[in-house]
Each structure stands twice: as structure tokens, then as C-alpha cells.
Amino acid sequence: MPDVTIDWYVALSIILFAIGALGVLLRRNAIIIFMSVEMMLNSANLLFVAFSRHLGDLNGQVLVFFVITVAAAEVAVGLALIVTIFRTKQSINIDEINLLKG
Amino acid sequence: MGILTIVTFLPLIGVALILLLNQGENESEDKIRWLALGTSAVTFVVSLIVLAKFKTGVGGLQMVEQADWIPSWGIQYYLGIDGLSILMILLTAFISLVSIAASWTAIGHQIKQYYIFMLLMEIGMMGVFLAQDLFLFYVFWEFTLIPMYFLIGIWGGKERIYASIKFFLYTMAGSLLMLLAILYMGIKGGTFALPDLIAGRAAFADVQNILFLGFAIAFAIKVPIFPFHSWLPDAHTQAPTAGSIVLAGVLLKMGTYGFIRFNLPLFPEASVHYAPAIAVLAIIGIIYGALVSLPQKDVKKLVAYSSVSHLGFVMLGIFSLNEAGIQGAILQGVNHGLSTGALFFLVGVLYEQRHTRLFSEYGGVWKAMPVFSVLALIVTLSSMGLPGLNGFVGEFTILLGSMGAASLGPNPWIYTAFATTGVILAAVYLLWMFQRVFMGPLDNPKNKALRDINTRELTIMLAFLLFIFWIGIAPSGYFALMDSSVAELVSNIGTAVVALP
Amino acid sequence: MGNPIVFFILAAIAIAAAMGMLTSRNAVHSALFLVLNFATIAVLYIVLNAPFIGMVQITVYAGAIMVLFLFVIMLLGADKLGGVVGEDKWQRYLAGFLAVALVVVFGIVLAQGGGVDTGTATAIDSSPAALGMRLFEGYVFPFEVTGVLLLTSMIGVVVLGRKKRGKDA
Amino acid sequence: MRVITYFFMNAFNLAPLILIFPLIGVLANGLVGRRFVETDRKTGEVWSGWFGSLMAISSFVIAALLFFSLRSQEFHAEVIYLFDWFNVPSAGFRIPWALQVDTLSVTMMLVVTGVGSLIHIYAIGYMHGDPDFSRFFTYLNLFLFFMLILVTGSSYLMLFVGWEGVGLCSYLLIGFWFDRVDETGHPMNATAGRKAFVANRVGDLAMILAMTLTFWTFGSLEFNTVFQSAVELFEKGHMVEFGLFSASLGSVLTAVTALFLMGAAGKSAQIPLYVWLPDAMAGPTPVSALIHAATMVTSGIYLIVRSNVLFEIVRASGSLILGVISAPDLVAYTGAATALLAGMIAFTQFDIKKVLAYSTVSQLGFMIAAAGMGAYVAAMFHLITHAFFKALLFLSAGSVIHGMEHGHHEIAHGDHHDDGFDPQDMRMMGGLRHKMPTTYVVYMIGALALSGIVPLAGFWSKDELLSHGSDNNFAVYLMLALAAFFTAFYMGRQLKMVFFGEPRHAAAEHAHESAPLMTRPLIVLAALAALGGFLNLPYFTEGMAAANQHKPGGIFLGLEGWLEHSIQSFELTAEGVLHMPHTSVVMSRSVAGLSTLLALAALAWAFYGVYGKKPKTADERDPLQSTPIWWFAILPLNTFYMKGVIPLFNRLAHWLGYALDWDFWHDFVHNRLIRDPFVGFANFAADILDTQGVDGLVNGAGKTVRRLASVIRLSQTGYARNYALSILLGAVALVAYFLLMVN
Description:
The structure holds 4 protein chains of 4 kinds.
Chain B: H1 3-20, H2 26-53, E1 62-70, E2 75-81, H3 86-102, H4 111-130, H5 134-143, H6 145-155, H7 160-189, H8 194-199, H9 208-222, H10 231-238, H11 241-266, H12 268-293, H13 299-318, H14 323-354, H15 365-368, H16 370-384, H17 390-403, H18 412-438, H19 445-448, H20 455-473, H21 476-496
Antiparallel strand pairs in B: 1-2
Helix pairs in contact in B: 1-2, 1-4, 2-3, 2-4, 3-4, 3-11, 3-14, 4-5, 4-6, 5-7, 6-7, 7-9, 7-10, 9-11, 10-11, 10-13, 11-13, 11-14, 12-13, 12-18, 13-14, 13-17, 13-18, 14-16, 14-17, 14-20, 14-21, 16-18, 16-20, 17-18, 17-20
Chain C: H1 4-23, H2 27-47, H3 51-76, H4 89-112, H5 128-138, H6 140-161
Chain D: H1 2-9, H2 17-39, H3 41-72, E1 78-88, E2 93-101, H4 103-126, H5 133-152, H6 156-174, H7 188-218, H8 223-236, E3 239-242, E4 245-248, H9 249-267, H10 276-279, H11 285-294, H12 299-306, H13 308-317, H14 327-347, H15 352-372, H16 376-412, H17 432-435, H18 437-451, H19 457-472, H20 474-499, H21 506-510, H22 516-531, H23 542-547, H24 558-563, E5 570-573, E6 576-579, H25 589-610, H26 637-686, H27 697-712, H28 720-741
Antiparallel strand pairs in D: 1-2, 3-4, 5-6
């Protein structure tokens, strides 16, 4: 049985990140896309903590703390936006929202 | 936060406040105007404080502010002021104030945006003259293009789109070469800070001719030196009055300032090497600009071409590479800003009433507007270089410099003699302009209804005249401001160039 | 860095939960899968000697944020909008390819063992107290800024959520 | 009593006042004068005019005080420092505003303010009723201000301030009636003013070059320093070196003095730049008298006299211009040639003022020639007497014109029907001696003084000048003697046509004498013109001179004794630098006798010969019209400039402005050569562009960018997914690069 090294955590993190990315790219539901983004953030967090442990540096954890805070703020605003969009368009289908079209 | 940062970014406060106001109602339009005027007035006052804090005997940078910006590239937020830039700062503050006051009634639509752009313009210009980090300088340099692009493009004349795009791309194209030169030096030297690069200029001495040209072309287009002047008549004629004032008053000076600030100390040998060639172009510019001014049918175009002629003098002074020449050049830059700025303003006053700038529409205006005409006469004379007024002081110091310039070879008098013909030609085209507008019979019925200058316009003109007379009669204080810095610059060039005796 | 068996079990649950979130047709299910995923990761944090972060993960993410998600999903009745992108199939393929490519790239690197230093982990004091000290010694200003950020987003949410005067009402 | 003595003997501290008084006049009349005159014409004119005149008189008083002060301290010159003007420490360039009070400048001050005051008073009468009355006095005072700066300045640069300033005033005053047009509708007065300014500027070009050269040679522009170091350098025989330039002092100073000549030629209307002066007669007559006869046009002579040290060094150094002629000789020949040429052109004029104008050019030539020969005192002497009698002549001519206008007004009864009447045309005059007796008498005195008839002022000054010529430069003497003969002839012609014979026009019959305000200054000037010669009488015999050791004394050589404290001429002999006499101390009887004879002969010939019975009517041909002398009416430089140089210049400017700069450089090069191929390439490359309405290289670029953008913008779908996809694409590429390639 091999020891659990940092490599394992990197691998796990990448897989979760890739799944999150797929979620963003494939799903139509804005809320699910949002959740996928959260998952990508989490995969990054996981890596932070793993490296923090690996290198013996507490700063990694501090950073995760901040990421979580920012994520919380982001979710709050993001969901509020989704609610607003839903009010005007009666839909949260991401394919129907293209206000930024050039 | 240092005073230089304050003087640079103070207009941002005005921008923010204006943004908060609603556009539309008359009342808030006035509020916008007053806000913009107030902001620029405060900036002007702060620039006077800078002047008060300025130590005249010191050659190097003063009131330095230094902070890391992008440390991994050696890019800093680095502001500083010395004798080469102090006058430019004052000029910028003054011209911005005046041009905002001059737009009071001339701009009738999209007032909010207009004043925001004017204030942004001021930030950019201040930054250009204060930045001591090449990268920071470049950022400010390019930044100035944006507000001017919109000022011409939105509030300009009939061909404004053409003129603004031409202005933008022309100057942009020149700056790209400068950007390459800056990047090369910055990456090679590991820093973008100008003083450090000057100290370590030996590192790129082998390619300095190329680097010199990279900078020179960018600045030459801005100045503009013949034959890069083709954008100027378009931009000047199409810009709104205040735009022309700023353009002639400050933007063109950014080019000449660039030569003094960067080309001379960074590449002294190349400067000496190219001095005769640039002097020849400058002299061609003097004569050519004057000749081309003469047959123009549009007042503003005439003044625009006259800038080519005047800036030729400035370039000649710079590449005399001696104390008199460079100081004369800096002062002449200021003088040109005042005289030509005032001329554009006067043209604007006429244009506001008659909506034409064609000479054929005018004549005998003196009879209808006596006070205005006297003021115009004084400004014309100042532009012509009448001794006792500001133009002469700069011009004479420049010619004095070029007569004794070692950089122009053993016969500098040939250059000086040709340059001095500009004195005659200036009289020819300026008097012709004055005669066509103000003299002769008042036979166009539309001109009979012209009202004379009002209090606001008179106040602006008196502000111009104050400096026109002051510099003309007692310029020694102005020279004292730049003397030490220029002396240091010249000795700096001299020590680098062993070939010079 | 933990018992391999524990790690594998947790990793498997996390990935499974993630896949579940990705594939569920019902948004509520997706959210619940995500909660599971977050909880698993929280456990991993604790394994990694970061108990404070693990707890925060549970309370903030799995608790607060996900509740918010569920709340919105139910509020909007948007739980049935499932499925994946319809028309542009190339997007789906490209996305899949990219995701796989990402994993493969890292896989290659990890297989070569050249990615990161695989030395032994260093043990440090990472108790909540130590973390708190670090936070207030070196990160006071960012900490304050974070507070402002939260406040700002709160105001933003209030503004966004408010009904437009004279429009809807 | 002591206070008063102090006041008189130490007026140097008051010297700045001489500038301040006229300046006050300028400000007062310029700022409030107009309103004053418009509210109440009559009292307004009195206040405005007399205030201006009072300022001129005050300046005269100060000048007189300075005169006494100089006498009381044995002619010791003073420099009164006011404040710094230029100060560029690192370049060593420092020029203060400072007043040079020495005998030369005080002489000029007295002439300028004295004649100036009289003309101011005269102008109150002459300009009566003009709508721009106060503007006129503003200009006059401004002129006085600049003229005084010119003569009091302690440096070349300050002199130049006045030099340009008077040029400006001349421009403004010539164009005073700027709305008057000629038959073709061209504003001729404005154009004449412009012509004067531009011609002067040609001279100024030379002045600027001379000054810059002087500065680098001597390190200063202040008279005292320049002259001192010039003498020092000359004695040491050093080379002049600055920058990479190197030359001998003689050749540098040759250049400087030749440039000064060119400057003087512009201001003092010498060949080849005299052409502006006759046109300048378009200004009001007091202006012609003050500026274009008595004062401003003499500033070229003042310049040369002031720079006498430099000229004499050049003479002593033997440097030649292009190996042909030395600079002082060139000055002398230029002056003599001008005297001769202008004297001949004066024959052909019918305008009363133009005759006087060409006469002025001619007399200025005399002075320049004298200065070129080293006869500086003679030049100054003639300058002073000329100021008297030429001012007198112009003002009297003004009186004549005034009289003619009134006569015309009377017959026309306010009906402004123009029958081609010109109040200045001598052919329409005649017989005016009965109508205008005072004017006639003073005019006669002036004309005889100008012609050089004993014992009027002109005789003495011209004679001194001629005798110097016969001693030193015979060719110049011959030319000047001939010019003097011409002078008497055209004055005789003028006298005859204006005052004698029968009136040839109804206006002349109805002309009458001018107001006392105008005639009284004429009488004062007539007295000066008659007695001015006593300023510098030569010794009549060798014995008298020997008794006084050939030095000034008694009533003799007063001006010489006064000016020798400012004029330090010298010549190089075997013994070194020696002082040189400025004037012939003893009257040369042969020269005096000959010139008097010639003058009388010329007058008589004009009076009784050529114009004995003619002309009888206004449209009769002039008897000289069929002789070669008439060619001078059209041949000289004026035609060459107006018909040749200026059209060519204008065409060049037009070609440059429109053909070269606009059509070629702006449109063709930028648009056709750079823009079009660029745009064409862009069209080809993007394949979705249309070629319509593309404009400018830069526009081309702009449009290309826009078109390119219209392709690229298709990628901006607005769908978040597409953006996310591209982000991921980039991220994966970057990660792959860094992880795989870098390792």
C-alpha cells in the first residue's frame, strides 16, 4: 500500500475541477452552472490545503479561508442576479441570455 | 500621498462628482460646468503649491514619489519633478483651467461627458510630465489619446470622425516604436526607472541610434516635425475650441518634452549624431509651415500650420544641445501654448457668433469689436515674436543657442540664419491674417451685428495676457526655474560625448 | 497525509457525488449531491490536519451556501430545467475533450513524477488558534477588506432583489 | 535752493520717468480715452489730446533735466539699472532693463521728445473730428514710449525692443485709417502698414543674427561691455571661438556690422529696403512727420553711430566682405547711392507727401553715408537738423492738405461727389501763398533749409558732411554733391507747383489758412530749422581753429564737444589705437561755396527754367515726363518687388500650401500611396470589405480594424458558455504548455 502523497490530492483536485468545468460547459440551468463553479473553487481549495500540509505553511489555509468568504459573497450576488434575470425573462436557461452579444 | 500624485489625480474627484450629477436639466448643466471649472481651478492652485515647494537651485528630481507597481518587471509608480517639467506642469494646469472656461457656452450637448473627458485629459497630461518611469510614462502618453479622440470625434466640426481617427492612429503608430524601444531597454536594464536607465545607458550604447529613432519618431509625430505634420491641420480645424487650445497648448509640448526628457539624456551620442539632421528638419518646418500658412482660407488652419513653424524653433533649440537653446526651447513651448492657445480661443469667440472660420467672411471686424481686436492684435504680435512680449524671449534665446551650438558643426550660423527667416515669414502670414479679419472696410452686413467680448471672455484673455506680458518683460524667474536642471542635462550630455570639445 | 484507504474511499465518494451533480436532471438532486461532495471534502480537510477549514467548509458551504441554492431553486421552481446543451454538439464534444485533456495532461505529469516535490509532509501547528493568530498577524487588512466585500455584496443583493419602483408593482 | 540744484544736477534717478510718462499716456488714452471722447466730443478731444501732449512734454522736461545733469557731472555717462530681463545663468546670458544716459542718447531723447511734443500739439488740431481721436493719441504715445526705449536702452537687445516697437507703431499708424480702400476695393492703408512692417522685419532678421553673433563673440549685449571687450580683443588680436566656430575678430565684426547695415537699411529706408517709406505716407500727416521723417527712420543712423567702435575696428582690421569692400565703406556707398536714387525718384512724384518721403529717403542716405565714412558727429548733426526741417515740411504739407480739403469741402457743399480730387496732388494746387501765408513762409524756410541755403540749418549740417566726404572718400562726395543738387531741384519744383503760379483747381482757390493750434508749432519748428545750424558751427578759419587747439570751444563745434564723450572712434596707426577726429574742424570754403552755388542753381533752374511757366492746368504733362529721369518713377526696386518678388512669393506659398502640402502630401501620399494599397490589401485579405468611401490611410486602417472587428464580433455571442469554453481552452493550453513543454 503506497503512502498518500501530494500527487494523489492533485489528481483528485484535477478530476473534480474537470467535472466542475464540464458542468459549466454542458448544463443549461444557470443554477447548476453556478454550483459547478462552486465545485471548481472547492477543488482549488482542496489543493491549497493539501499543499499547506505538504509544505508546512499555514498561509495556504488562510487563503482558503478568504476564498470561502469571497465564494459566499459571490454566491449571494450571483443568485440575486439569477433571481432578477428570472423575473425579467421568466427563464434561467443560459442559452436564452445573451445580453453581451457584440 | 505626495503632492505630485495629488496634482495628477485631483481631477478624478471632479470626474466622480460630475458622474453623480444627472444630465439634462439646465440647472445641473451649470453645476457640471462649475464643478469642472472648480476642479481645474483647484488643480491649478495645487500646481502653484508645487511651484512654491520647488527648489530652484536643484538640478535633479524633486518631490519624488516611488512605489513598486509591477515589481517582477521592475516597473514602478515613479513621479518626480525638475526644471524640465515644472513649467509644463504649470502650463498644463493653466491651459486646462482656461480651456474649461472657454467651453462654457461653446459646448451645447453631452456636457457631462465633455467635461469628464476634459478632466481626464488633464490627468493624462500631468502624468506624462511627471512620470519618471518609462512604462508609467507610456501608459499616460497613450492615455491622453483617448479623451482627445472623443473630444474631436464627438464635439468637433464636420469632418470630425476622419480627423479623430487620423489623429488617433497617426500618433498611435508612432508610439508603437517607442513602446518597443522602452520594452527593450526595460527588459535589458531590469528597470524602467528613467534615472536608473540614464545611469546605466552604457548597456545599450551600441544600439542607441536605433533606440533614439524609436523614441524620436513617436515624439516627432506629436510635435509635429516636418514631414509628420499631416495630421495636425485636420485635428486642429475639426477639434472644438477647447480641444484646439489643449492640443496646441499642451499635447504638442509632450513631443518636445519627450525629446528633452528621454532622447537627450538616454542617448547623448545619438543626439549629437542626429542633431544636424533634426535641425535641418526643424528649419524646413519653420519655413515650410510659415509659407503654407500664408494662403490658407481658414483661420484655424492658418494657426495650425503656424504651429508647425513655431515648433520648428523649439526643435532647433533642443538640438542646439546647449543651455540657452534648451531653456529657450522649453520656454518657447510655454509661449507657443499661450499665444496659440489664445489665438484659438479668439477664433472660437468669433466662430461662436458667426459659425464660420473663412477669411472671406470677415474684414473690418475692428470697427465692430474694438476691444476684442486690440486683444487679438497683442496675441498676434506675441505669436510673431515682438520683443517685450513672450514669443520673442523664447525665440531669441533659441536663436542665441543655435548660433553657439557645437552640435551643429563649425558653421552654426548657417542654421541660425535660415531659422531667422521665420521671423520675417511670421510677420508676413500673421499680419496678413490680422488684416483679413480685422482691417479693411466692415462690408459684410453679418459682421456689423457682432458683439464685443464679454466679461467671461475678457477674463480669460486677461489671464493669457498676464503671462504674455510677464514672460515678455521679466522672464528671468522662468529661466531660474529650469536653469539648474538644464545645466545638469547639458553637462550630462557633454560628459557622455567625448567628441564634443 | 492520511491513510490511503481512507483517502481512496473519500475520493471515490467525492468524485461520485460530483458526477451525480453533473448528471442529475433535477436541480434539487444536483444540489444535494454537491452537499455530499462538500462534506467529503470537509472530511479530507480534517484528514489534512486543517480542522478549522473543515468546519468552515461544513458550516459555510454545505450549510449556508447550499441552503441558499436550494432556496433559490425552489423559489424559482427551476428544478426541472435539466438536460444539456441542445443544438451545438461541437461544444459538447469540445468541452468533453478539454476536460479529458486536462486530466490527461496532469496524469502524464504525475506519472512522470516530475510535477511536484514528493517529499514527506511537514507537520505544523494548524489549530484554529494558530490559524487565527496568523490571520490577525499577517492578514489584518485583507481580512477587513473581506468584511467590506461581504457588506457590499449584501447591499448589492438587497438592491438587486428589491422590486423596481413603478415597474412591477 | 539746494534741493532745486540737486534736482537739476542729479536727474539720473528720474530717468525712468521718461519712459513712464508716455506709458501713462498710452494707458489713459487707451483705456478710457475712447469713452471720454465719445461722451463729449469737444472737451473729450481737448482732454485726450492735451493729456497725450502733456506726457510728451513731461518726457521732454526729463530729457532736459538729464541734459543738465550730464553737464554738471562732466558728461560722465550713467547706466540706470531697472530690473533683470533675460537671465540664463548657466548660459551666462544676462540682460537687464537698464537705461544708458550719455550724451548720445540724451541728444536723441531731446530730439524725439522735443519734436514729438510739437507734433503732438499739432495733431490735436489736425485730427480734430476724427472718430478715432483717442486711438491716435494712444498710438502716438506708444510710439514715443518705444522710441525712447530705443534710444535709452543700454544693450542691443533693449535697443531692439524699441526698434521693433516703433516698427509696430509705424504699422499701426500707417494703417490708422485701415478701412479706407482704393478704386479696386483693396484696403490700401492696411496693406501699406503691412509692407512697412515686413520690410522692417527683413532688417530685423539681420539684427537678430548680429546680436546672437555679438553675444557669442563678447559674452554680452550691453553696449559698455561689448565695446570694451571689442577693443581689448582687437588689441590682443585673439581669434573668436565658440562651439566649433572659429574666425578672426575682423571677419566676425565685418559680418556683424554688415548685418547692422541691413538692419539700418530696413528701418532707415535704404537700398534695397526703402520701398516701404513712400507707401507709409498713407498714415495721417503728423505721423509722417514724427515717425517717417524726424525720429523712427533715423534709428538706423543711431544704431550705426552707437556701434561706432565696432565699425572702426572693422575699418582698422582691413577685413573685406568677399574680398571686395569693407563694411564701413559699404555703409557709405549704400547711403550715397540711396541719396542719389531717392533724389531722382522725387522728381517724378506729384503727391506732395511722396516728394517729401523720397526726400527723406535721400537725406537718410546722406546720414548713413556720413556714418559710413566715420563722420559720426556729422551724421548726428544732420539727423538733428533734418528732424527740424523735415518735420516742419511735413507738418506744413499737412497744413496745405488740410487747407485743400477745406477748400474742396466748401465748393462741394457737403456733396460727397468725387471728381477725382486728391488733396495731396500738387497738380491741383498752385498759388497757395496768398491763401495760406503762414504756411507759405514756414514752408519756404523748411525748403531752403533742406536745399542747403546759407545760413539755415541744412546748410551747416550738409556742408560738414560733404567736406568730410571730400577729405576721405571722394567718390561718395561726388555722389552726395549731385544728390544735394537734386534735392534743391525737387524742392524748387515743389515750391513752385504748390505756392506759386495760379490755382489749378477750385479747391485751391477756396483753400484757407489752418487753425493756430496747427500753425504755432510750425513757427517754432521754423525757428529751429533756421537756427539749428548753430549747434555745431565749424571754425571759419584755420586761425580760429588753431587758437582753440582744434578743439570745440565757444559757439563752435558745440555738438562735437558734447558727443565726443559718447563716440569713441579711433583708428589704427603705427603707434597703435588713436583717437580720430569726427568732423572737419574748419569749414572748407571750396566745398561750402560749391554746394551753395549748386543749390541756388538748382532752385533757379526749377523755378525759372523747367517749371517757369508750367504747369498751367491740373492735367498738363510734367515737362520732365519725356526725359529719361522719368524712368526712375517706375524702374527702381518698388516695381521689382511688387511685380516680381511678391507675386512669386505668393505663388510659391500657394503652391506649397495647396499643391504640395494638401494635394500631394495630404491627399496623394497619405491617401493614394499609403491608404489605398493598405486598404486594398485589407479588402483582399478580409474579402468582405467594400471599397466605397474609404478615406485616408488612417481611415483605411480604422475601417480595416472595424471590418476585422465585425468578423471577430461574431465570436462574441453573448453566451456565457462560449466565453467559458474559450477560457477553458486557453487554460488547458497554458497548463499543457507549462507542465509539458517547460519540463
